Amino acid sequence: MPELPEVEQVKKTLYPHVVGKKINTVEIRLPRLIKYPTAEIFAEKLTGRTITSIERKGKYLRLNLDENLYLLVHLRMTGALLVIKKMAAEPLYAKIKFVLTGDEDLWFTDIRTFGTLYLIDHNDKNIEGYDTLGPEPLSKELTVDYLAPICSKKSAAIKGVILDQKVIAGLGNIYADEALFAAGILPQRPANSLNKEEIARLIEAVNAVIAQGIKNHGTTFRNYQDADGNQGDNVKHLFVYGRKGEKCKVCGETLCGLKVAGRGSTYCSKCQR
């Protein structure tokens, strides 16, 4: 699933292609991807709207439109927003086409079709999962004073706690494993066993791995691509994620794997305590 760095890269690459463009028509090939309102109203209300700006919050993309509307997109596991020349062949796994003014169109593609899209105005209901997002990595709100009280009340594994989007927005399996390794903390440690020094170290590590992921345009293992169709380079810089059974790049120990909070996790039993 694309995490904060990947969605940030999509936002950056999408911006110059679509901001200022009008949506002439919308072609929906898989209506169930539209979670609010109905697919018919979604297409009708988007027609004629101009994309005025793009924001990202956690793993969500928000395309702001005129008339006080905004298009909210969650890519989930394999969703992608791609900008394609009008005369080019349509992309694989195309599910929604936004026909724009100019010589390019915007496509939503999705192999596994778990992506979700919402068209919202300021009078609409809140979107579950979006309006309850916690502070992001690299934000001034993510501090020891914020995270320590949360951890002190939870006996669950620390990895599960930091994967909770209500606790830290935008962090997923890849960067959670990497941050815990960088902080020297086992993913299965009970959250309430961490002291303030370890929590400070973990926050610093979360910020560092997220910043690295953004710098390297995200992490691509299989399907992730940005709006220009390019893959991310961050896989070359990972220390543990996806490397179970390989040697630790720091100490040479064989990396271990287990399920933590229902997610596959890789760690070094020597570097992490």
Key attributes of the depicted protein:
single chain, 25% helix, Helicase, Ruva Protein, domain 3, alpha+beta, N-terminal domain of MutM-like DNA repair proteins, 4-stranded antiparallel β-sheet, 6 helices, 273 residues
Describe the protein's architecture and organization.
The protein has about 270 residues and is α+β, with helices and mostly antiparallel strands. The chain folds into two domains: about 5-120, MutM-like, N-terminal (N-terminal domain of MutM-like DNA repair proteins, Alpha-Beta Barrel), CATH 3.20.190; about 145-265, Helicase, Ruva Protein, domain 3 (Orthogonal Bundle), CATH 1.10.8. It is built from six helices and eleven strands. The strands form three sheets. A five-stranded mixed β-sheet has the order 2-9-5-4-3. Strands 1-7-8-6 form a four-stranded antiparallel β-sheet. The chain has a two-stranded antiparallel sheet with strand order 10-11. β7 and β8 form a beta hairpin. α1 (about 5-20) runs parallel beside α6 (about 195-215) and α5 (about 175-185) crosses α6. The chain is globular, with a radius of gyration of 20 Å. About 40% of the residues are buried.
CATH architecture of the largest domain: Orthogonal Bundle
Global outline = globular
Measure the end-to-end span.
Answer: 27 Å
Strand arrangement, major sheet: 2-9-5-4-3
Give the domain tally: 2
Question: How many H/I helical runs?
Answer: 6
Number of E strands: 11
Residue fraction in strands? 15-25%
